Each structure stands twice: as structure tokens, then as C-alpha cells.
């Protein structure tokens, strides 16, 4: 059955988009975790039990898998894509990973667009900012807008450009979270937590530091494993640019160590 969009992976992002855009009857999906078929059914998304069936009639595919599966998913799907189908790689991976995925898709006759999702899908949902790059980025922008996305910007025709912006930006965004965690651990150990936060709050009023610290640490405990994987891709990005990812390597460890812990 032909649908408007095919989703490879049905985790938080795909399920959030499906619910917010009301894609019931318009979308189909494949996920390597069979248990997610129930979530698809609850949202009216057709479940396919293999990637071949999911993409065989696809015009537009959104790849929303984990970072370590982005290239694997593209390589697995490529031989089964119809000619000229658009593969939107929305995964948080390095530019080289996107270019390798693009090689697989394009060699099989498909079209590839690098998509960088710049914020958590919750609570932004369809307003989450997205950057697109690739030869077919302009057409893809229109196709995504028709699906309900409202905050899309094309940043060039070069595959890897959108992901480079995200990966390099992530060095700062995720790095600040990791530095906050380290700072708070030391402040608690020294029993000067309130004083340290007050001193920071006095010098920067955009957001109270107690609020910012709690937010950053909550992000790490909730999403640390996923963010560590993303930061590994950021490290690869920096290495490819000739920059040693010294602080980024520390961020990877902090994000991964915080994953699943209960905030203090």
C-alpha cells in the first residue's frame, strides 16, 4: 500500500511526529524492535515486518534510528528503494557518515538529503528546527512542509553541510551540560552549591543558574546515552577538520556516565 511517508525507526522522534501530524493512514514504518508495532498501531501507522516491504513503494523516507544504525539502515534499505525516492537522513551523525549513507542510497538510484534536527522533538514536535542540505533539499523542504513540519531551512547543496552545523554546535550545547554536571558535583562535594550557583546567577541573568543546572543535568540523566553517541560523532567531525576533540571526549564520558542516574 502506498503511503505519504515511510518511517525507518519508530522511537521517540517518529512516534512524536506521527502523533503531532496525525499521520494515521498516511504513514508506514519498520523498526528492528518488534515490540514497537503496538505503538505504530496505536497511532494508525502501518507496521511492516521488514525494511524491504517498508520502502518498496516509498516516495519519501524519514530515517530516524540510533546514531550507530544510521549507515546500516541506509545500506539495508538502498537496494529496495524505488528509483528517485528521497531518503531523509535525520540521524545525529558525522558528515562522513552521512556521505557514506548517501553513497549507498544514490548508487541504488535513490536521492539523499542530509537533515539536521537541532532540538529535542519534545516539546517542539513539528516546530523543531531542521536544517537540510543536498541536491534535492529544496524539493524535500516542500515535501516535509506538506507533512506538517514548519521550521525548515535549506543550508546548501552539499551532503554533510547540515550535519556539520549540528555536530559542531553540539560541541558547545552538550559540552555546557557536561561542564555543569562536573561543576555541580564539585560544588556538592565542597558543600558550596548555593554559593556557586548564586555567584553564577549574579553574573548572568538570562536564566537563573539553579534552573539551568537542574535542566542540564536532567537532560543528561534522561538522554545521556543517546547524547554520548551523538558526541562521538561530533568528535569524528572535529578530527576530520584537524581539531583534536579534547573537551568533547570528556563530554562523551560525562554524558554516558550520567545516563540513567537519578539527579541529585
Give a description of the structure.
The structure is a single chain. Helix 1 (12-21) links the parallel strand 1 (5-8) and strand 2. Helix 8 (161-189) crosses helix 11. An eight-stranded mixed β-sheet has the order 3-2-1-4-5-6-7-8, with helices on both faces. It is 54% helix and 13% strand. The protein has two domains: 5-157, Rossmann fold, CATH 3.40.50; 163-258, Orthogonal Bundle (N-(1-d-carboxylethyl)-l-norvaline Dehydrogenase, domain 2). The protein has helices at 12-21, 37-42, 51-55, 70-77, 95-107, 121-124, 137-147, 161-189, 193-203, 209-240, 246-258, and strands at 5-8, 27-30, 46-47, 60-63, 86-89, 111-117, 130-133, 152-156. The chain contains eleven helices and eight strands. The chain has 264 residues and is of the alpha/beta class. The active site is at 166. Residues 187-256 form the Phosphogluconate dehydrogenase NAD-binding putative C-terminal domain. One of its GO terms (molecular function) is NADP binding. This is 3-hydroxyisobutyrate dehydrogenase-like beta-hydroxyacid dehydrogenase. InterPro entries: 6-PGluconate_DH-like_C_sf (IPR008927), 6PGD_dom2 (IPR013328), 6PGDH_NADP-bd (IPR006115), HIBADH-related (IPR015815), NAD(P)-bd_dom_sf (IPR036291), Pgluconate_DH_NAD-bd_C (IPR015814).
